[in-house]
Design a protein that fits this description.
- The chain is mainly alpha-helical.
- It has one domain.
- About 85% of the residues lie in helices and about 0% in strands.
- The longest helix is centred in the middle third of the chain and has 40 residues.
- It is globular.
- The two termini are about 25 Å apart.
């Protein structure tokens, strides 16, 4: 098996998860290391499972997956991004109405449901990748395929974990603008996935 090729594919698949992790790190105010672990574990798990599903579905389902994956990713990320922006705008209006500034007020982490939607949206590509992965990297046995998908999951975990901490640093710089910027980034990521699949794949 070509382990270098697997690592390259894993890094490529993890880039959207990395960008979303940075966004999550930027918008959270009540930060704990467990939050970074939760995001990394969720994103890594989905990046591990999706190629397995794609592999099981096989060539028969490849066209179906590729025909809808970009729509699903765009809709989910745009939905989360718009909600994030609207929530930030509403919060800022409430601050003005109440006549005080609570920028430093603790904000709870994104809900598990929201993180699940993000994990699904950023791992859709891995479904189709699972179909071609065995031939692309020489994972021609079940054991080698399992090693390949575990590598993808572990690399995504590491990339996402570091992304949260990188976003945490940006979040401090952005202050109360972080949620608006973060929501916009999610929409842009969704649009990028959609455009790439529609016009460049």
């Amino acid at each position: 098996m070509d382990y270098l090729a697997v690592a390259g594919i894993a890094v490529g698949l993890a880039m959207d998860a990395f960008a979303v992790s940075v966004t999550n790190g930027a918008v959270i105010k009540k930060f704990k290391p467990s939050f970074a672990v939760k995001i990394a574990a969720m994103f890594g798990s989905f990046q591990l499972m999706m190629p397995v599903v794609g592999w099981i579905v096989g060539k028969a389902g490849q066209e179906l997956i590729e025909s809808v994956d970009h729509y699903i990713a765009f809709i989910l990320l745009a939905f989360i991004g718009v909600n994030m922006i609207l929530g930030a705008v509403k919060e800022n209006r409430n601050k003005l109405k109440d006549g005080y500034n609570n920028i430093g007020k603790d904000k709870t982490a994104a809900s598990t449901k929201t993180l699940l939607l993000m994990a699904v949206a950023t791992s859709i590509d891995a479904l189709a990748t699972g179909v071609i992965l065995p031939s692309a990297v020489g994972a021609n046995t079940i054991m080698l395929m399992l090693i390949a998908v575990v590598m993808i999951g572990v690399i995504t975990f590491a990339v996402s974990f570091s992304g949260v901490y990188l976003g945490r640093r940006f979040g401090k710089l952005l202050s109360n603008k972080a949620e608006i910027v973060g929501g916009t980034v999610l929409i842009v990521i969704g649009a990028k996935i959609f455009i790439e699949h529609m016009f460049f794949s």
